[in-house]
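Below sits my pick:
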Amino acid sequence: MRILLHACCGPCLLEPYDALAEGTEVAVCYANPNIAPAEEYVRRRDTLRAYAADAGIVVTELPYEPQRWAEAVAGAGDDRAARCRACYELRIGMVATEAARCGYDAVATTLTVSPYQDPVAIREAGEAACARAGIRFLPTDFRERYPEATRRSRALGMYRQNYCGCAPSAVEADRDRAQRRAARASQRRDTLPQDADPGRHQR
């Protein structure tokens, strides 16, 4: 079976590619019009391409069309889950169209390696997109491989982004990190002895 694998970045490619490539022909498709700004898109693409070149992996890049992504998710409004689902369907659909055109047997995605993504929504969006293209979608769940993907990408010195890709996700990631910092600070305050004076050593 020949698989065309949608990949969002270099770190997320590592473990899913190895899992799928055991006895199977796998090529990679970089189709990510969601990533913003353009400099971030290029940085993630170049990280992926550098690893793929060293590993002998074939990579196809589809056109970067952020306006197409904006139109695809416009109906979601502020609904994060709906926006992500529309994004999954667009990107996997782009790969499915390319796979059907080039004679691949199936499409898969690296997205499910991330514990921050919704594997059920990815599967449903992937199946819908591939059905329209007339090609098989391979449902996967690579989350158990995330720790190893993290370890390997760090060992390789890969660029590791700190948000999903789109502009709204960057804002949400910043907000989530700020909330976690505040929660940790609150927890530290709560664990101080009741008679402790955190300012008593200040002059």
Remarks:
- The longest helix spans residues 167-190.
- Residues 2-161 form a domain with the Rossmann fold fold (CATH 3.40.50.620).
